[in-house]
Amino acid sequence: MDIVMEHKLSLFQLCDSNFPTGAFSHSYGLESYIQENKVHNQETFSEWLRVYLNEQLIYSDGLACHLVYQALEEEDLQKVWKLDRLLTVQNLPRETREGTQRMGERMLNLVESLYDDPILSIYRKRIGAKQSFGHPAIVFTMIAHYLKVSKAETTLFYLYSVVSSLVQNAVRAIPLGQTAGQKIIHQIQGDLAKAATTIGQLDEEDFGLVSPGLELSQMMHERINIRIFMS
Amino acid sequence: MGDWTGALNLEVEDRKGKTVAKKVYFQGAFKVMRPIYHDESGQACYYLLNPGGGYLDGDRYQMKISLAEKAKLTLTTQSATKVYKTPNNFAYQEAEISLQPGSYLEYLPDPLIAYQNAKYKQKNVIRMDKTATFLYSDIVTPGWSPDGERFSYQTVQLLNEIYVDNELVVYDHIRLNPATQNMKGLGFMEGFSHLGSMIVVGKQTNSSLLDQLYSAIDMNSDDYKLGLSLLAVPGLIIRVLAHSTQVIEKLFSELHRMVSQEWFNTEPSFLRKY
């Protein structure tokens, strides 16, 4: 197998919804919609997923992948740390902010046992010293860059990993059938490719945009009584 | 970038327990009235005015507000900010706010009304000492159009950047884009028309304040939807979706009252405007 393919395969490992980062315990506000019965089947979940992708994810994690990759290409680590902070402080609902931070740390520890990219330990030390927060999109991009996977593919694969975890969560929580879940993942692939293209055309001015309802659902999740997700 | 339609520079300081202006400068279509002292606390209140009556195509407004140590200031507007249609360039307003140790700023502008085909961007940058306190609110209405259609503006984009001791701690970025977004759809306005945001940053904030606010608010009301969350630094953010400005104002004044009571053992003043 040629080295490029091998490297892509290595990145696929991180996209697997079984990769233990803790993504299975976060719904990013989806659970609020489920409890209000606004998301209750394949159709309503697909609608939520598209809005989440296009009105929040591309401007936060997605744009971060793109910008972090650029910064790594330019060996501008200060920029990476700046984006780590920006990603964290634009995430205003406490549960999603803290949950994402924990996922970032967990993912970082895991990939450090797989790869000896020196930047990983720099990132971990910064987090330990409370100079950085930790974010899965940044860890993912560090590995993708290390594996020399292209910038556009990095963004696309990251979006896929988030979306496939969310679908698995929805299958458990709504609940949906496994076939319905796979249909959703199949149908959203065109949207993911489009989102990755859009991200390539965004600039830093667009960072952190979010639509009000999504964010509100993430804040309201804090006071949901019976919950299966941490956000 | 120095070409402002209106510019305002206000510096205040504490003189023997009373907050007074050290420097007031304005030019173009932006001004402030003489300060009002609503009570004996020494806290000054300035009303911002837009003598032009509203923002027009390509208008650019800049505000620089600075509070010296222990100064206490309320900053508000005299009436709603109206943004008329902007066929070519968006209207823009930016505020640079500096809060020195122990100072306190309440920045409580009136609602924003974006007219049909208006594009508006607003950027507030707050640089504060960790011992300063900042309280902010804003309300975005569904705008105005001759035939009464809601959300007929093109875009409203609001950015709040807050730095505490030179570190970015809040990046609040909202854009409503009825030209391309389905405002009635899931994830946007959730069937409501008005959006309110309130941000409080101050070292006194803790989770018991949050609990207190939660317990004072009816979270099951059909009149609004409200979310509250603690920030990455001591402080909190509140977002409200509602059907009217009045509902949001009522909630915010109650929350403001509770925060003032908890932190300073004071009651906020009623801001007379008419």
UniProtKB/TrEMBL annotation, chain A:
<comment type="function">
    <text>Required for maturation of urease via the functional incorporation of the urease nickel metallocenter.</text>
</comment>
<dbReference type="GO" id="GO:0016151">
    <property type="term" value="F:nickel cation binding"/>
</dbReference>
<dbReference type="GO" id="GO:0005737">
    <property type="term" value="C:cytoplasm"/>
</dbReference>
<protein>
    <recommendedName>
        <fullName>Urease accessory protein UreF</fullName>
    </recommendedName>
</protein>
<dbReference type="InterPro" id="IPR038277">
    <property type="entry name" value="UreF_sf"/>
</dbReference>
<dbReference type="InterPro" id="IPR002639">
    <property type="entry name" value="UreF"/>
</dbReference>
<dbReference type="Pfam" id="PF01730">
    <property type="entry name" value="UreF"/>
</dbReference>
<comment type="similarity">
    <text>Belongs to the UreF family.</text>
</comment>
<keyword id="KW-0143">Chaperone</keyword>
<keyword id="KW-0963">Cytoplasm</keyword>
<comment type="subunit">
    <text>UreD, UreF and UreG form a complex that acts as a GTP-hydrolysis-dependent molecular chaperone, activating the urease apoprotein by helping to assemble the nickel containing metallocenter of UreC. The UreE protein probably delivers the nickel.</text>
</comment>
<keyword id="KW-0996">Nickel insertion</keyword>
Automatic annotation (TrEMBL), chain B:
<keyword id="KW-0963">Cytoplasm</keyword>
<protein>
    <recommendedName>
        <fullName>Urease accessory protein UreD</fullName>
    </recommendedName>
</protein>
<dbReference type="InterPro" id="IPR002669">
    <property type="entry name" value="UreD"/>
</dbReference>
<keyword id="KW-0996">Nickel insertion</keyword>
<keyword id="KW-0143">Chaperone</keyword>
<comment type="function">
    <text>Required for maturation of urease via the functional incorporation of the urease nickel metallocenter.</text>
</comment>
<dbReference type="GO" id="GO:0005737">
    <property type="term" value="C:cytoplasm"/>
</dbReference>
<dbReference type="Pfam" id="PF01774">
    <property type="entry name" value="UreD"/>
</dbReference>
<comment type="subunit">
    <text>UreD, UreF and UreG form a complex that acts as a GTP-hydrolysis-dependent molecular chaperone, activating the urease apoprotein by helping to assemble the nickel containing metallocenter of UreC. The UreE protein probably delivers the nickel.</text>
</comment>
<dbReference type="GO" id="GO:0016151">
    <property type="term" value="F:nickel cation binding"/>
</dbReference>
<comment type="similarity">
    <text>Belongs to the UreD family.</text>
</comment>
